[in-house]
Amino acid sequence: MAALPEKIKRFPGLRTGYHYLLAWLGAAWFGRPGRKLFVIGVTGTKGKTTTLELLNAILEAAGKKTALISSLRIKIGDRSEKNPKGNTMPGRAALQAFLRHAAQAKCRYALVEASSQGFVQHRHRFIEWNMGIITNLAPEHIESHGSFENYRAAKLSFLRYVMRRGGKVFLNRDDAQYPFFSAALSGGPSQAAAYSRNDEWLGNYLPKIGPMDAVSRSATPKFLLSEFNEENIAAAVAIARELGVGDAAVKNALAGFQGVPGRMEFVARGPYVAIVDYAHTPDSLRAAYRAAKPGPTANYPEPRLICVLGAAGGGRDRWKRPEMGKIAAEYCDEIILADEDPYDEDPAGIIKEVRSGILGGDPGLANVHEISDRRAAIRKAIALARPGDVVIGTGKGSEDYIHIANGKTIPWNERKEFEEALSIKERGQGEGEGGAGAESGV
Predict the structure, then answer these.
(1) In 186-319, alpha helices (H)
(2) What are phi and psi of 370, to 5 degrees?
(3) What's the Rg (C-alpha) of the chain?
(4) Shortest CA distance to 225 belongs to which of 271, 137, 290?
């Protein structure tokens, strides 16, 4: 679909009507393909992609044919490819086209990652949603929505849309916003179901995965069993149970689950461990650090957490930058501040705002390093690591590019950058060799 005409942008009513019309046209053009599928939408601030992948693994283990669309990949049956645009919820025509291809491939289930910005643009309209799940809610996209209340209202509009059409809604009882959603949806045509990582029945499934101790070096885990992943597991299993999937299929799927690229993804070389994660909000950053922070062991009595941290530019949620710096100071022993996606903003200015949250931005802190070039920052972090330490890079995950000024991009693969930095350390080539960029503020 064409970009929104400038004249329409000035009038909210026309803008809403424009997006609604496009949603209707997309559905009409492709013949409302959602009617031939069991459509499940997962929304929330974090955990959407992992929950979808967990649910997909469970359904496949049960012998079901699935289609899936998320910011990570597009899958129809046995065919899977990386989402070339990386957007959470594609435009109306693209989403309807995906559903038609899924129906033509004789898929039974369509799993869709659904976003608040997509709801505002009516991308969820004219789709026969059978289930809607919200993983959690925390402040994000505040600038684009105008307020947290507007952001929350967008999520609520989707859940109400699902319920009005006879679909079932699942709410996370562990989330701080659960009372709001539970009260707002209590008068719907059907009651919303609740799930929790503390549900007694969930314990029947978690032991098959087992707690993963990255610092023990006995094995390098692909999927970290942390509090937030327990919530993702709880959501996926609650849906599977509702669909009648047997316990054996659920347990087998969870036991063999290999995680999601860029979501608490482990990279290891010898006694050194790094983690690549997509966390880009204060809540998700705190959860990632809490999960990654190593505890003392007999071999490594004083392990440290070392982080590579940045924030997106382009005016995106500037309020969270100092808050993320504050969280890093709470959990991390060494902090390397680096570019994430500066877009047209001054990278040094973004780093300065993140640093302002680290103990008031004290320039004399020896454990805070400013290295704008992200490759050099990663190599610095790995060079600082000692056996028993854990290094974590957040914000990029599995993204393919770093976005810089004037719409330009730099090809990027965070996992490969960590692998190369670890290889350099193994080869004993010294601190930061092979990287670019200068360090400041140390």
Answers:
(1) 227-242, 247-255, 282-292
(2) -105, 110
(3) 22
(4) 290
Report the distance separating Cα 232 and Cα 46, nearest Å: 9
| 260: in domain | no
Together in a domain, 341 and 239: no
388: left (phi > 0), else alpha (psi -120 to 50), else beta? left
User: For 70-115, where are the alpha helices, taking DSSP H only?
Assistant: 92-104
Output the average pLDDT for the chain.
Answer: 86
| In a shared domain, residues 320 and 431 | yes
CA-based nearest residue to 401, from 340, 338, 353, 333: 340
Residue 188, token pair as written in the block? 């719907």
The answer to whether residue 116 is domain-embedded is yes
Q: Is the same domain home to 204 and 324?
A: no
User: Where does 31-80 have alpha helices with state H?
Assistant: 48-61
Write the burial class of residue 298 (CB in 10 Å: 0-12 exposed, 13-18 middle, 19+ buried): exposed
pLDDT at 88 over 90: no
In a domain, 55, yes or no: yes
Distance of CA 358 to the CA centre of its chain: 24
CA dist., res. 262 & res. 277, Å (int): 5
- Give the structural domain span for 341: 265-440
| CA dihedral of residues 399, 405, 408, 410 (deg, nearest 10) | -50
- 371-412: per-residue pLDDT in tens? 999 999 999 999 999 999 999 999 999 899 999 999 999 999
pLDDT reported for residue 4: 55
Distance CA 149, CA 141 (A): 11
Cα distance between residue 350 and residue 193, in whole Å: 41
Number of structural domains in the chain: 2
The pLDDT value recorded for residue 441 is 36
Neighbours of 362 (CB within 10 A): 11
Distance CA 367, CA 261 (A): 29
The domain that contains 318 carries what CATH number? 3.90.190.20
